[in-house]
Amino acid sequence: MTRANRSRNLAESRKEILAAAFGEIFAHGFHATSIDAILEKTRLTKGALFHQFATKLDLGYAIVDEVIAPMTMARWVHPLASFENPVDGILHQLERNIGRAPQAALNLGCPVNNLIQEMANSDAGFQRRLHRVIERWIDGIEMHIERGQKSGHILKSVTARHVAEYVVMSHEGFFGIIKGLRDKRIFRSLLRSLEVYFAGLIPRTT
Amino acid sequence: MTRANRSRNLAESRKEILAAAFGEIFAHGFHATSIDAILEKTRLTKGALFHQFATKLDLGYAIVDEVIAPMTMARWVHPLASFENPVDGILHQLERNIGRAPQAALNLGCPVNNLIQEMANSDAGFQRRLHRVIERWIDGIEMHIERGQKSGHILKSVTARHVAEYVVMSHEGFFGIIKGLRDKRIFRSLLRSLEVYFAGLIPRTT
Fold first, then answer.
1. Radius of gyration over every alpha carbon of chain B, rounded to an integer in angstroms
2. Which CATH homologous superfamily contains domain B56-199?
């Protein structure tokens, strides 16, 4: 095998392991997921897995850095760029990612929130990485809120960072309570209430 | 031993086990907590524990029903009765239970939220019990919101249930993000934003 082929194969098997491990851990939690259960979802050997991830913990860390972090930005932040008013974008993404998601998917909760609740207090490596995911998520929303302030859609008197923190908090809260109730009917009322909050950030037309 | 003594002893050892198990599971999660770790925090034997709880799962269920459910009502719902305006009470309890709580306690998150994220999707018994805790929490807040509508503190045009759902969602969200960041400085800005939401529910004085 050429070196180029070998490194392409390594990259592909890494992706395959990460995708399988993400799915298992998202569905069952980190503790409840075994390396064997992950391997069963791939065509790879245990040797191939341990070649790339020395321990289950290393694999867990890679899932946060290489799967959850980019996924969070792709689902909740980057799409806002196509909305003139970022608040419309935030509501649209909630509608798309929660309102239109099947109940079975929502029962799994939010990958970030799940791992925070399970791992942030007991493992410093998870904690540091999940903290970074949350910070970048807030950073991304803040940037769009500032854009909305410049374009006159959002009051200039509010602190964009605070709005961004509240938006991210409410996403975690939406996922948490929908998972707890296993019933997304509550989504509609939560979204209306979030709109009441946003209404308080709109410049009054006089 | 008389029958009365025996049943008093059983009740006391049940309380002791539940308190120890709650502490361990709150700190480490359900999966990561062993019966041995719980027993180490008590003066009881394994036999005494299994006499009351046939399995670790039974013990987990009892923690939700007998510890977490009443604790949630005692911390977040019952105290609202002493506030003429329930919104003042909600903000006061957040200040007291989160704003003034030590960071180390907040790093543990919310007992309800932790168990939802870890167990609600994988175990129907936990799911049913945690669902009931959330429903009663919402019921309790709803009752106080209705009282606030009658006394003129809250707009009669809003649906009390929806406000209650949003309030409970935001509690879970506050705990979730503070645990994720391991930094309660964000609490101050979240509370201000929640006040922006509440401001949208106040009757306008004309």
1. 20
2. Tetracycline Repressor, domain 2 (1.10.357.10)
Instruction: Look at residue B184 and give its three-state secondary structure.
Output: coil
| CATH 1.50.40.10 corresponds to the domain A61-199 | no
Task: Please tell me the pTM assigned to this model.
Answer: 0.92
| CB neighbours of residue B19 within 10 Å | 15
CATH of domain B1-54: 1.10.10
Residue range(s) of every CATH 1.10.357.10 domain in chain B:
56-199
Q: What residues 39-58 of chain B have any CB closer than 8 A to a CB of chain A?
A: none
- Chain A CB contacts of B192 under 8 Å are 162
Coil, helix or strand at residue B114? helix
Tell me the chain A residues in contact with residue B169 when contact means C-beta distances shorter than 8 Å. Answer: 170, 173-174, 176-177, 186, 190
Is B122 an 8 Å CB contact of chain A?
yes
Residue of B108, B165, B190 with shortest CB distance to A169: B190
Contacts of A193 (CB under 8 A, 6+ apart): B162, B163, B165, B166, B197
**According to CATH, where is 1.10.10 located in chain B?**
1-54
pLDDT in tens, A65-104: 999 999 999 999 999 999 999 999 999 999 999 999 999 9
